[in-house]
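Researcher: Please translate sequence to structure tokens.
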Amino acid sequence: MDIYVQLLVNSLQIGAVYVLFSLGLTLIFGVMRIVNFAHGEFFALAALLVAVAVPWLIDFGAPLPVAYGLAFLGALAGVLVLGKILYEFAFRRFQRDMIGSFVLSVGLALLLQGLYIEIFSSASRKLPTLIDEGVYMGLSADFDGPQATAVQRKLNVGMKAAVGEPMNVIQIGGYDAVMALKAGMEAANSLDPKAIAAVLPKIMFDTSYGKTAFGGEATYDSPQQMLVPVVVTQVKGGKLVELERVIPAELTKRLAVAKK
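Model: Translation complete:
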């Protein structure tokens, strides 16, 4: 029962982030009629400032909760300064000009992304955890652990060599999506998106988790969900431990049919 409660809490937490993001975007558009496609870069700056400030404050002897609190305040101030600068010198001239603000914000998004990579680097960052022992985690996996596949271990080694950090589930999902598209193009013998979309629900294909397929028609009214295992992880001894990989029942049936 605990795992379902924790998964519910994780889902609400992630959903709250999406709601906060969308509210900011719609508020700016609704009040100022500015299409701000650089909105995500404000969130990115806050996250990057926290990622830099927390270890720095801990090195100066600040307790972990205090370090996070001060980093949060610093990130808030940094985003306010960025917003004020961009408004005064850029967006103020394009209020209620949706086309002009759109073009401007796309350019600013690209500029800010480049600056962030130059200043903070593109490597992922790990922060000290505030999570209590025994908490179940979503969107987490151990691609070095005993339950990882040979493909995942190999990809994880390459990721560590390239950026110094292990692979996460978002990155592995990108790899699996490319493998699905590759299988669809080969099965359709075409690069036409409609032809590929028509064959994808009918085929099995290789992913980092092994053979899988698209399913979920009973839930979504179309087979649009890639059927990969649900990874259950938990914090133990201050480390993330992978407990189980739950294979979807629909995938189990598809695999059994494929073996016949």
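Researcher: Any highlights?
Model: The mean pLDDT is 85.
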